[in-house]
Amino acid sequence: MGVPLVCHGHSRPVVDVSYSPITPDGFFLISASKDSIPMLRNGETGDWIGTFEGHKGAVWSCSLDKHAMRAASASADFTAKIWNALTGDELHSFEHKHIVRACAFSEDTHLLLTGGMEKILRIFDMNRPDAPPKEVGTSPGSIRTVEWLHSDNTILSSCTDTGDIRLWDIRSDKIVQTLETKFPVTSAEVSQDGRYITTADGSSVKFWDANNFGLLKSYEMPCNVESASLEPKSGNTFIAGGEDMWVHRFDFQTGEEIGCNKGHHGPVHCVRYAPGGDSYTSGSEDGTVRIWEVGTVNHEESNNLSGHVKLVAEEVVRKAESLRISEKATEAAKGNIV
Residues 136, 173: contact at Cβ < 8 Å? Predict the structure, then answer.
């Protein structure tokens, strides 16, 4: 599957990675690490752009807004911080009463969603950062993941020590749907087009309809997985990473493994496809971020090429036969002359 771009810089395990959408300046990648320093990189080349310095504890989650102008981070120091992604300056620090495990910008970039050990989902208004946050319900356990969907009207969350995904309507502050899983969900991703929810729990990767919440597919992985991501353009493949230290790539329709990336020296904690689908990234216990190029074969082109080769071969055979017939005719004519 090719040699990855290895991005060094973190001194402790990388526990979260997140891409920006494609912007006029390209797309960007942010990584969260237990070393307390989120890092921003060029999403295509992996080149280091800068670090966000100010946390005093492990950073568990990170996010970029859709313009890649601001970054957010959630930390064990009981804060979630907003950063200027151009200068690295801290714009605001939202205080919590316990460890913050997850954060996510809303689609319109005006809101920041957080969750953590307090078991409370909070929504902060970026236009009024000093205003008290809106609190949404109480979760049954410490919150592990958070995401927005349905044009910022619904949020999803999972817990560290209990199974299931919970979907909350922020207008009523109530759970409107529960997606049942056998084990705690360690990764949740809403697809770029908003149609699918991808989750990882135990050794299972599941795909849900984001509108009617039905379970579409469920695949058992070769090992326990911490993270999974669906290819954003065609949705034909997905990746998963976990305790075996490899990044596996699968066919979405069949669940067949079509690739395996080896190189990390510790469990893989997070994986994400780049917004264009041409590459994907992984973060590991070994402290590195790796960017892998997609090495797919276009079956349609392959078939067309095979057909072209077949036609050329047939034409060569016909010409050879024609040449042999011509030679025989010439020899016959010489015999008649003699």
Answer: yes
> Token digits for 54?
């100010």
Instruction: Please write down the HEC assignment for all residues of 226-239.
Output: EEEEECCCCCCEEE
pLDDT in tens, 18-41: 999 999 999 999 999 999 999 999
CA distances from 297 to 1, 21, 272, 276 (A): 11, 25, 21, 17
Q: What tens digit of pLDDT does each residue of 96-131 get?
A: 999 999 999 999 999 999 999 999 999 999 999 999
- pLDDT of residue 86 exceeding 50, the answer is yes
Specify the residue for token string 């946050």.
133
The rounded distance, in Å, linking the Cα atoms of 245 and 227 is 12
Predicted TM-score (pTM) of the model is 0.86
Please state, in angstroms and as integers, the Cα–Cα distance from residue 121 to each residue in 41, 164, 168, 273, 317, following that order. Answer: 29, 16, 10, 26, 72
Euclidean distance between CA atoms 143 and 297, whole angstroms: 40
Strand partners, 187: 200
The H-or-E segment that residue 136 falls in is strand 134-136
Question: What is the gyration radius of the CA atoms in the chain, in angstroms?
Answer: 26
Q: What tokens does 289 get?
A: 């971020």
Report pLDDT for 1.
Answer: 52
Q: Is the CB of residue 289 less than 8 Å from the CB of residue 31?
A: yes
Backbone torsions φ then ψ of 105, nearest 5 degrees? -75, 145
**What's the pLDDT tens digit per position in 258-298?**
999 999 999 999 999 999 999 999 999 999 999 999 973 33
297 contacts: CB under 8 Å, gap ≥ 6: none
